[in-house]
Amino acid sequence: MNNREIQTAWKYHDGTKHSYWSIRNHPHLLDWANRPQPFKIYPKVEPIPLPRDLPQTGVTALSAISEPVPWSRADSVPGLQDLARLLYFSAGITKQRAYPGGEIYFRAAACTGALYEIELYVVTGDLPGLDAGVYHFNPADVSLRLLRKGNFRGNLAQATAMEPAVAHAPATIICTGTYWRNAWKYQARTYRHFGWDNGTLLANMLAVSAASGLPADIVLGFVDAEVNRLLDLDTRREVSLCLVPIGRTSESSLPAPREAPELGLETIPLSQHEVEYPAMLEMHDASSLESVEEVNQWRGGPPVLPTSALAGEAVRLPRVPEEEQTKDTTEQVILRRGSARTFDKAASITLAQLSTILDYATRGLPADFLEPPGAQLNDLYLIVHSVQGLRPGAYFFGHEHNAPELLKEGKFRAEAHHLGLEQELPADACVDIFFLADLRRILERYGNRGYRAVQLEAGAIGGRIYLAAYAQHLGATGLTFFDDDVTNFFSPHAKDKSAIFLLAIGKPLKRKSQ
Q1: What is the DSSP letter of 257?
Q2: Phi, psi angle pair for 316, to nearest 5°
Q3: Are 451 and 437 in contact (CB under 8 A)?
Q4: Where are the alpha helices (DSSP H) in 337-395?
């Protein structure tokens, strides 16, 4: 398949839309006896324990999500403690809860259905405390498994067409998606969730990296087959999604790419049997880049610039002085974060709190598909229910101006309930943030791979919204939606845009003890 044949992305997107009738005509019952294992386990590879008693960075969460570490000439090499901090606060287990069938392990970043289909691998040169190699991170025992011994950084540099951030990174974290672990519940829509769940994890990773003083970037331009081969993935089950180069080394020469023969390492099956959804495999294959030349072409095109300028009544949001912001550290906020299950419908948040969330979450992601700096593929639309100093209604948020534009005034809790798949959370929230994007322009510029980019960006901005909300002791929850109904609700302003993601923000309802 060819990345430029964008009818594949449209076919997948339209084929996985939710509607009032699709939900009722295609019910999906969960087979709890066949629920997939939450971890990828190599039973015959010895674990390398990572340090657990990690010193706190002391950097506030709001600073970490808004101020990425600039690239410089100086070396910035992570040690084993840095790597352990990055992996744990991105994908580690922070809470666990017993239920009748066993236990649920909740991780550092939000994930659809708490199914945690994103796996992390690390490709390193020699680091303080860790030899060069290709490793897999297992959150269950907070350890690494060595899959390949030696320095394979040259392989990644080659696969990314010598992307400078990768070529000069002493370590690169690779995020992969495991189809069945999420598709067990969400079926073919899982490929959208790859972007959301990878994105929320990346928000944590970028924040912790910044708090640790290590530059980091999101790299989506790479030859898929080369990275999959290096990790020895069975691509009918698991695929590479993005690379995150960590740190910087000024060395002038990279090791030459090495042979990466098939490993054939045993892994424990996720379930007794897996169900394959061909639409996802077709979507991934069609969005894969097959050569260095294709990577260069994909990365070198013109930027997708915003088209939705402010035209109506705009509200200038107050900027809260930094000295008045919460001082909770990045690690404290990540450990506190969870996906709210219920909101207090009678509560409200302040305009300053909403301003802080929107401002800090939309300052731009360091990603190879976003140019110029601060560019954004997704547009943010709001349904405001209970924000002090802001009239209830539907708004468009112009992030370049840090100003919401009133589209229509009114109380829309009933509409939010419907749009959010008839769930109570978006109706009870103080504000709902909908991500919509002009898919036509994005796919024309980036090909099918633009579909990966727009979903991942939504998840990453959503992840920053989570952190900014929880830094202020609020709650947040990512939700799914009735696709076309969302577009229709915000039209004519959102005409021809596609719904990508939804995040509800409010004050968690404190349950009375029995």
Answers
A1: P
A2: -75, 125
A3: no
A4: 351-361
Length of the chain: 514
Give the span between the Cα atoms of 275 and 268, in whole angstroms: 17
Q: Measured between alpha carbons, how far is residue 198 from residues 79, 194, 455, 459 in Å?
A: 24, 6, 9, 7
The set of residues, in sequence order, having a beta carbon less than 8 Å from that of 427 and lying 6+ positions away, is 345, 413, 414, 416, 417, 420
* Cα separation values, 281 from 1, 37, 213, Å: 11, 21, 38
Residue where the block lists tokens 């008045």: 324
Q: 3-class DSSP state for residue 339?
A: strand
- Specify whether the CB–CB gap between 273 and 36 falls below 8 A: no
Highest mean pLDDT: which range of 105-114, 316-325, 336-345: 105-114
CA torsion, points 30, 33, 37, 38, in degrees to nearest 10?
50
Going by C-alpha positions, the residue among 207, 480, 245 that lies closest to residue 363 is 207
The answer to pTM > 0.85 is yes
Give 513's pLDDT tier (boundaries 50, 70, 90). Answer: very low
- What pLDDT was estimated at residue 310? 62
Q: Which residue, 463, 455, 485, is CA-closest to 191?
A: 455
pLDDT number for residue 374 = 83
Locate the DSSP E strands across 201-356. Answer: 238-246, 349-350
Distance CA 163, CA 144 (A): 26
Helix (H/G/I), strand (E/B), else coil: 343 = strand
Q: Is the pLDDT of residue 435 over 70?
A: yes
DSSP string, 173-210: EEEEEEHHHHHHHHGGGHHHHHHHHHHHHHHHHHHHHH
Sorted by sequence, the CB contacts under 8 Å of residue 514 that are 6+ apart come out as: none
Quote the tokens at residue 91.
Answer: 């994908």
Q: Kindly give, in sequence order, each residue whose CB lies less than 8 Å from that of residue 138, ignoring residues fewer than 6 positions away.
A: 39, 40, 41, 47, 144, 145
Residue type at 363 in one-letter notation: R
Cα distance between residue 493 and residue 396, in whole Å: 8
Question: Pick from 377, 371, 410: which is nearest to 308 by CA?
Answer: 377
Question: How far apart (Å, rounded) are the C-alpha atoms in residues 310 and 400?
Answer: 10
Is residue 250 within 8 A of residue 259, CB to CB? The reply is: no
How many angstroms separate the Cα of 400 from the Cα of each of 228, 267, 313, 375, 404? 37, 47, 16, 9, 11
Question: What strands, in cross-sheet order, belong to the sheet with 379-384?
Answer: 403-409, 393-398, 379-384, 431-437, 498-506, 475-479
The per-residue pLDDT for range 118-143, each reduced to its tens digit, is: 999 999 999 999 999 999 999 999 99
**Contact present, 412 and 392 (Cβ < 8 Å):** yes
The alpha-helical segments, DSSP class H, found in 323-428 are 330-336, 351-361, 413-419, 424-428
Give yes or no for a contact between 427 and 420, defined as CB atoms under 8 angstroms apart: yes
Residue carrying the six token digits 């112009």:
398
Provide CB contacts within 8 A for 102, sequence distance 6+: none
What's at 30, amino acid-wise? L
